[in-house]
C-alpha cells in the first residue's frame, strides 16, 4: 500500500524543526511513505527544497518529498489538491492518505471541509484509506474543541483520528509509567502517605521567535499547560491501568483529569519586548505559575506546583517529587534532608533518587546523596526524538501515544478559567523568573528545586 502524508503547514516552524527531521530518519530506517508539503511560502518544489531542506539531506528523503503551492482560501484549492494527489497515487490500487494538520486551530474547519471534498473526488480511483492528524492545541477553548471535534468525527472515524501531544512520544513520559508500574518499591512510596509535594518546572531559554504569529493567538496556557503539563500530571498520578494498552491507559488518565481541582494561585507574565525594531513585541502571556491538587484517594492533599514559560536564564525541565520527612522529628535532627525523586528532562534525561547516607569521619552525620540513572549512558544516545515515535505510530495505526478527546476535553475544562481575557499579566525582564513564581513558592513555604 502506498502511504502519502499531506503536510498542511508544510513550510511552518513545526514542519521544519520537528516533522521533516522525523520523516527523514524514518525513511532512512526504511519506512516507506511519500510526503507532500502544502504551503504558500514558495511557488515551486525546487524553491522549497533549496530554501528549507538541508543541502546534504539524503535522497532517501528528498526523493519522497514533494511540494504544492496551496492557498486554502483560493477558489480552486480543492481541485488543485485533488489533481496533485491523483498524480501521486499513480497506478497504485491501494493508497492511504494521512492528512497532517499543523495549522492554527481556526483553520481546521475549512481544512476538514476541503479534505472531505478531495476524498469524495478521489474515492473512485483506488482503494483509499485515510487518517487525519491534528496538532495541539486542539481547539482554542472547550467550546471550539468540541465544535472542531464534531466536524472531525463527521468526516473520520475515531480510529482514523490522531490528536497530537508530542510529549507522549518522549522517552521520559513513557519511562514515568514504567518506573511507576514496573517497580514494587516505587509503587509503595508513590502516594499521599509518602509524597509531600511535586514541582513541575519547564523553563525555556528561547522566546516565541519565528512563531510569533502563531503564538500571539495561543499564549502559554494553550501552548503548554492545556496539553503537555496536564499529560505529565496524569502520568505522575494515574492509578495502575489494567494493561498498558491505549484504552486502559486512557481510562486511568481520564479519571485523574476529572479529579483535578480548580487551579489555585494562578499568575501569568509576558517577557519584556525585545524592541520595536526587532519585530518581536509579544503581547500574549509567555509564562505562568500555579498550584493544583489531584483529588483521588491516593493523591489528594499533595500540592502540585507548576511553573512554565519562555525567555529564562537556563533551560530547565524537571519534575521534583519531595517526600515527607518524618525522620527529622523522629531522630531529633533538623539537618536530615528529605528524600526525593528528581526526573530531569532537559538538558538530559536523568532520574535521581536522593537518600541520606553517612558522611565519612563523622559521628552519625548523614548527607543527601544521589543515585542516578542517565538515559544516554545506559542505553546510548540514539533514543528516537518524540516526533519520530509519534509519526511511526501514526503510520502503524497504533494509538498508544495520543490523547483521547475525553482527555482533551477535561484538560480544557481545567484550564478554561485561566483563559479569561481580563487576567493580569506581569511583564518580566528577559532571563529572569517572574516575581509571581517566586511568591508562589514563598507563600507555600518552599523554594523551587535548583
Ligand atoms: C511545543 C510548544 O508544543 O512544545 C513550544 O508549542 C515549546 O512552545 C515546545 O517550546 C517544547 O517542546 P520540547 O519538545 O522542546 O520540550
TrEMBL record:
Q: Name one GO biological process term.
A: glucose metabolic process
List, alphabetically, the Gene3D superfamilies matched: Dihydrodipicolinate Reductase, domain 2, NAD(P)-binding Rossmann-like Domain
The keyword Oxidoreductase is annotated on this UniProt entry: yes
- Which keywords appear in this protein's UniProt record, sorted alphabetically? Carbohydrate metabolism, Glucose metabolism, NADP, Oxidoreductase
For this protein, the record's InterPro entries field holds:
G6P_DH, G6P_DH_AS, G6P_DH_C, G6P_DH_NAD-bd, NAD(P)-bd_dom_sf
Cite a single GO MF annotation: NADP binding
In this protein, which residues make up the domain named Glucose-6-phosphate dehydrogenase C-terminal?
Answer: 178-448
One CC-aspect GO term? cytosol
Q: Which residues form the Glucose-6-phosphate dehydrogenase NAD-binding domain?
A: 8-175
Q: Which SUPFAM superfamilies match?
A: Glyceraldehyde-3-phosphate dehydrogenase-like, C-terminal domain, NAD(P)-binding Rossmann-fold domains
Q: Which Pfam families match?
A: G6PD_C, G6PD_N
- Top-rank lineage group of the source organism: Bacteria
Write out the pathway annotation from the protein's UniProt entry: Carbohydrate degradation; pentose phosphate pathway; D-ribulose 5-phosphate from D-glucose 6-phosphate (oxidative stage): step 1/3
PANTHER family registered for this protein in UniProt: GLUCOSE-6-PHOSPHATE 1-DEHYDROGENASE, GLUCOSE-6-PHOSPHATE 1-DEHYDROGENASE G6PD
- Annotated family: Belongs to the glucose-6-phosphate dehydrogenase family.
Name of the protein described by the UniProt record: Glucose-6-phosphate dehydrogenase
Amino acid at each position: 500500500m502506498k502511504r502519502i502524508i499531506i503536510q498542511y503547514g508544510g513550510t511552518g516552524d513545526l514542519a521544519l524543526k520537528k516533522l521533516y527531521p522525523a520523516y527523514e530518519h524514518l525513511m532512512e530506517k526504511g519506512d516507506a511513505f511519500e510526503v507532500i508539503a502544502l504551503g504558500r511560502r514558495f511557488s515551486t518544489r525546487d524553491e522549497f527544497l533549496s530554501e528549507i531542506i538541508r543541502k546534504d539531506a539524503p535522497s532517501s528523503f528528498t526523493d519522497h518529498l514533494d511540494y504544492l503551492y496551496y492557498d486554502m482560501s483560493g477558489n480552486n484549492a480543492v481541485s488543485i489538491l485533488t489533481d496533485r494527489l491523483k498524480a501521486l497515487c499513480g497506478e497504485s490500487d491501494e493508497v492511504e492518505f494521512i492528512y497532517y494538520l499543523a495549522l492554527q486551530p481556526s483553520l481546521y474547519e475549512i481544512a476538514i471541509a476541503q479534505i472531505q471534498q478531495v476524498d469524495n473526488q478521489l474515492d473512485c480511483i483506488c482503494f483509499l484509506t485515510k487518517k487525519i492528524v491534528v496538532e495541539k492545541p486542539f481547539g482554542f477553548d472547550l467550546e471550539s474543541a468540541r465544535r472542531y471535534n464534531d466536524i472531525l468525527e463527521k468526516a473520520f472515524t475515531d480510529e482514523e483520528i490522531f490528536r497530537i501531544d508530542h510529549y507522549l512520544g518522549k522517552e521520559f513520559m513513557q519511562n514515568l509509567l514504567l518506573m511507576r508500574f514496573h517497580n514494587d518499591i516505587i509503587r509503595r512510596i508513590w502516594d499521599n502517605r509518602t509524597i509531600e509535594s511535586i514541582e513541575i518546572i519547564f523553563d525555556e531559554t528561547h522566546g516565541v521567535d519565528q512563531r510569533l504569529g502563531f503564538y500571539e493567538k495561543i499564549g502559554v496556557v494553550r501552548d503548554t499547560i492545556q496539553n503537555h503539563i496536564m499529560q505529565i500530571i496524569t502520568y505522575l498520578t494515574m492509578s495502575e491501568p489494567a494493561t498498558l494498552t491505549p484504552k486502559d491507559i486512557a481510562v486511568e488518565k481520564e479519571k485523574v483529569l476529572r479529579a483535578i481541582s480548580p487551579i489555585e494561585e494562578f499568575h501569568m507574565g509576558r517577557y519584556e519586548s525585545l524592541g520595536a525594531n526587532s519585530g518581536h513585541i509579544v503581547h500574549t502571556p509567555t509564562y505562568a505559575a500555579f498550584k493544583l491538587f489531584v483529588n483521588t484517594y491516593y493523591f489528594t492533599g499533595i500540592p502540585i506546583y507548576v511553573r512554565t514559560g519562555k525567555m529564562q536564564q537556563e533551560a530547565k525541565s524537571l519534575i521534583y517529587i519531595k517526600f515527607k520527612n518524618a525522620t527529622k522529628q523522629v531522630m531529633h535532627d533538623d539537618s536530615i534532608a528529605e528524600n526525593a525523586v528528581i526526573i530531569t528532562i532537559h538538558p538530559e534525561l536523568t532520574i535521581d533518587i536522593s537518600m541520606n547516607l553517612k558522611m565519612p569521619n563523622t559521628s552519625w552525620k548523614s548527607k543527601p546523596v544521589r543515585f542516578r540513572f542517565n538515559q544516554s549512558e545506559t542505553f546510548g544516545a540514539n533514543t528516537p526524538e518524540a516526533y519520530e515515535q509519534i509519526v511511526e505510530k501514526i503510520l502503524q495505526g497504533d494509538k498508544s501515544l495520543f490523547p483521547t478527546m475525553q482527555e482533551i476535553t477535561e484538560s480544557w475544562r481545567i484550564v478554561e478559567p485561566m483563559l479569561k481575557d481580563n487576567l493580569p499579566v506581569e511583564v518580566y525582564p528577559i532571563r529572569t523568573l517572574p516575581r509571581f513564581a517566586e511568591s508562589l513558592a514563598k507563600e507555600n513555604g518552599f523554594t523551587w528545586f535548583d
